[in-house]
Design brief:
Low-confidence stretches: 4-39
Strand order of the largest sheet: 30-31-33-32-34-35-36-37
CATH class of one domain: Alpha Beta
CATH superfamily of one domain: Alpha/Beta hydrolase fold, catalytic domain
CATH architecture of one domain: 3-Layer(aba) Sandwich
Distance between the termini: 49 Å
Amino acid sequence: MTLNFLTFMTIASTFIVTGCSHPEEQRNKLEQSLPMTETVAEPPLWLEEVEGKQALDKVNAWNKVTLDKLTADKRYAQYLDSGLEIVNAKDKIPYGTFRGGFVYNFWQDENQVRGMLRRTTIDEYTKLHPKWQDLLSIDNLSTSEDKNWVFKGTQCLESDYDRCLLSLSDGGKDSVEIREWDHSKQSFVENGFFIPESKTGVSWKDIDNINIATNWGEDSLTESGYPYIIKSLQRGQALSQAKQIFEGEKTDVGVWPVTIKFGDKNLSIAVRSVTFFESLYFWLPDDGSDAVQLPLPKKVAVQGVFKGQLVLSLKQEWSPQGIKQAFNSGDLVSFDLEHWLQKQEIKNLQLVYHPEERATIDSVSITSNKLVLTLLENVVSNVYIYDFDKKWSHIKLAMPENGSMSVSSANIDSDIIFINQESFVAPDTLFKVDIKNIDIIAIKSIPARFDASNIIVEQFEASSKNGEKIPYFVVRHKDIQFDGTNPTLQYAYGGFQVSLKPSYSGLLGKNWLEQGGVYVLANIRGGGEFGPNWHQAGLKTKRQVIFDDMIAVGEDIIHKKITSSKRLGIMGGSNGGLLMGVMYIQRPDLWNAVICQVPLLDMLRYHKLLAGASWVDEYGSPDVANERAFLEKISPVHNIDPKGDYPSIMFVTSTKDDRVHPAHARKMAYLLEKHGHDFEYYENIDGGHSASANLQERANRTALEYTFLSQKLMD
């Protein structure tokens, strides 16, 4: 298990919803603290009231205008029908996790809208039509409890994996309710562990004990809205009886409990996320003695234990005290954990992997007898199998060379892993791999969702403003004319060390490529395609390089006459939504359509909204003078020119998004409306940060987006 804050956001679903409804005096104080530009007044703070009547009335009015316009286009029905056919297809790969002798899968289709948790044996899973044992219907549970439950995963006790802590979200929020579940009995455990809705982190110690970080009541959350106190709870105890075992600082982003399996031991670990990218790790001894801090750099991901070695991914240079050897950012290293537990000394510190130029670790998986590295080498995936016997050794796994690969299932109790392979034009294929015996079998694949017979993929590089070479992919029909008339969609993210790889999308293929569109994927800085340094090049006040990279790719494809500004659109979500907002403001001449999904747009108040304070390490703080000065220059909400000539923009967000506040999109739309600028707006009442809580909603959202793009770039 990788132990860093990015992982915990996913594993623990650790986010909380907090509507911003201020008393008048506080409201005035807040408004006065914000700079007033000469061109744009501040949008009203009632837009921050997530479910406030005035805000929702405005949202519903915007929704109606957009829905009336887009659904009246005959292409909407076409895109919706094809989207529903794809997302509800019966021949999808039922991706699963193999643990305790069973393959577990969460299945959604038109009959299981919210989804069915189910399992089958490994032998049955390899068949074309496996026989599944249904475990829990989220649809039935929602009906019986009159809730809009969204399944957010399980955390199961290792070895047999039958006893699990199951997370349920109301409408797709990151905040979850956690209940104890028994796979073998197909039921919730009577009087079992239960944690009310919150941004909770939880880990098993053993069958009768768990460690919990949650909302313990008054003053128990950080400024980012995450817990900073860990308590231990025994079976049969009320939550109020839990014993405190660790406390971080209120200024931390959050504190999380984790269990590391080490031989026959379960080590309790506390992770203090001091910032989004910096963490301190503490061992919590079972005898109740004081926590002991591990001697690790702050920017590191703890991958787990393999053959007694604690394996670490470094995100910074590291020269451990008392050791002559130095390691680089991006290296994978290990040391003897048993010796450290006994002596608190690092012994047998070794380099596992050092990335070559334009290469980085994409994922690390630990199995019973092997360590598996998925590497990105110039944004191309390769898988390597490592072993340890006093020294590290490795071989390259002989996978077919055909696109991106990812390990979709691995655990420390087995040497069976699943590897998924896909490309822009090749549908997903799932391989069962016995990595101890190097036995590779393709067990599942999906049929083509669109006609890719005449589609080709090319990789180019654009020169950014400071000379950095920025790779990007172009997916196009082989016979297009290079005359600037091709409708083109450029996608990017550019943040949080997230890597964008070639992937297969039936929705993109059917509703864009088949319609004559060109797709461009830009691997701009801020991502993780070339390791930690690629990401850190655009942190805080250096962020303009990320925007320059996006602009450089757009200019390069126009220079190649693949498209023109009139036919070029861009799309991005979350951090990519901020990117879209900045592109809209900085280079309105370069694009003709912008899709801005679940975005950050008010960069002077983002740190006060929901989980925003946790991202200060990425964006900088509006409370620090030089960082605020930079944020003032790039904040989309604060840089709208009332008389500007802007492209059409479509905002997509969700009322239930308790990660990035919907007020970001609301504020931008409010100001654009005030100044008469063209925009579309769609706020899904459910859906969380994905803006779609189920497959039907996803098909509808993408149908609206492709209709908008078609109107602006194809007509």
